[in-house]
User: Fold this.
Amino acid sequence: SLLFLSIVALFNFIIDPYQQYRKPTLYKTFYGGNQRALNTGLAKNHNYNSVVIGSSMTENFLISKVSEIINNPIKLSISGGSAHEIFNTLNTVFKSNNNIETVLIGLDIYAVSGKIDRLRYGDNSLPLYLYDYNYLNDIFYLINFDTLKEFVKVITLPIIKKNDLNWNYENMYQWQDKAENEFGKENVLKILKESPIDNNKFDKNEYSFETLKKSFDYNFLALVKSNPNKNFIFFYPPYSIIAFKDWTEKDILFDIMKFKLYVNEEFSNLKNVILYDFQSAIEITTNLDNYKDFSHYHQNINHWMIEQIKENNYLVTKDNIDEHLENLRKQIEEYDLNKSILD
Assistant:
């Protein structure tokens, strides 16, 4: 048994599918798959000076486009990522040997919902032994049949996904080409008709002001304060108007508005962070052709956000926070969802 486990550990160490010890030389990196494990190796062993991170709202940023606003970036997106998962990833980033200058973070409202240490797929779903720099607990990585399965994937992926764009660092984690035909008003409204807004199984407390505040304070605010020499660019992703209508139906809009006001107040006191609110961009959020569902927008919107940041448009300050919030209220009040469905 010891001999067998030693062989498994040796295979896993040599192939190192999650790149915990080195950048790969025996195979080409596929920037897809298990982000929650691969991101740790990328953070530890790749060379970069800036980071793009967040949920699926950040996955379609192209490295070349992001490079227009931040220096030498890497993208460590986490599909469905919670605030605590982002927090753990950034802690790994900051302990790496890289000189980190800037972090671009999508401040996803859904990410800061729930308890402060919430993991997207439940307790123990994040391999925390990969997030530290303690080699003693790597036994959980080396003598692990899931790692061995990933080793098999590494060998077979060049054949199975030969033409996938995720082989290219420029396109890492992007899914636009796979979902291109899913975008458009017709598809979004079809989803709404087939899966109408249902509040029966919704826990309103997950989005209470206190819940959002505690998660934000623990996972984001403390991180910004403890890294005063690093610059942070936060942005609210521009979900579709249907997502905002959903907030109203679920009676959580007031708490989210209060939370956004609180975030601005806290960030206004810090010199190393700026905040953009693209949810107030009515021309984007009310055009359902930009979306494939209630929240996921086209890659063109990712490009658009970079252009807005370059021009400092939608920047949130103490002086204009009320205007941003009013724009959000206005689009919710004025958008006739029933008319869109009938049209």
Summary: The radius of gyration is 21 Å. The beta strands are 50-53, 73-75, 102-106, 231-236, 273-277. The first strand starts at residue 50 and ends at 53. The longest helix spans residues 209-225.
